[in-house]
Structure prediction request, 233 residues.
Amino acid sequence: MLTVSNLHAFYGKSHVLHGVNFKVQPGEIVGLLGRNGSGRSTTAKAIMGLVDATGSVQWGQQELIGAKAFEIAHKGIGYVPENRDIFPKLTVHQNLMLGCKAAKPDPKARWQFDDMYTLFPRLKERQHTEAGVLSGGEQQMLTLCRTLMGDPDLIMIDEPTEGLAPKIVELVAEYLRELKRRGVSVLLVEQKLTIALEVSERCLVMGHGQIVFEGTPTELRDNRYIRKEWLEV
Prediction:
C-alpha cells in the first residue's frame, strides 16, 4: 500500500532523514517510535509533501515525491499534526465539515457525522461550540475526526496522546482500533511505548534519521538493548 524507499528529508541545509525504508500494508497499524529529534515527525511530513525530500514514496502505483500536500490528501492519505490545527472560531460541526473532500458530505462515504459523535460522544455534546474553547483533549478528538471525514485509506497521526489524561488516551486507543476494524491503515508516530505496543501490529524505531529496529510489539518488549539505546530517557 505505502512503500517508503531511501527517503531523505531536509530543512534547508539540514539533512534530517538518511535513507528511511519501510512499508505499511492495508488495514495495518504501524507504530513509528523514537526519541525527540529522531526523525519521526519529519518522516510523516516528508510523506505528506510538507518538507523537501528525495527518494521514493509509493502509494499503490503512484509516486508521491514531488506532489503537493493537497494532492496527496486527495489520493487518500490523511495527516493529523501534533499541533492539532483546529479552526478556533468555527464550531465543532463546522470543523468536521471542513474535513470532507466535497462541498457536501457524501451519504455513501465510509465515515459520517454520526460515526464521529459515536466515537467521541463529547464532540456531540459540543457540536455547536466554537472549537477554540474546547479542552486540549477535545481538540485532539476533533482533529482526529476531522481527518477521518476526508475518508482516507491511510492516516498518519503525530503524537495523538501528548498531554492527554488517561481516560482520553483510552478513547484515542479505541479510535485507532475502530480504524483497523474498518480497514484504514495507520502510521502512528509516538514517543510513548504504552499505546503503541497496545494497538500496533508492527513497530519501527527511529534513531538519527534512520530505522534502527522493525518488529512486532512482543519483539520490541523483549529487546532490552533497543529500548535502552533508542527509546528510554
About this structure: The chain has a mean pLDDT of 93. The first strand starts at residue 2 and ends at 11.
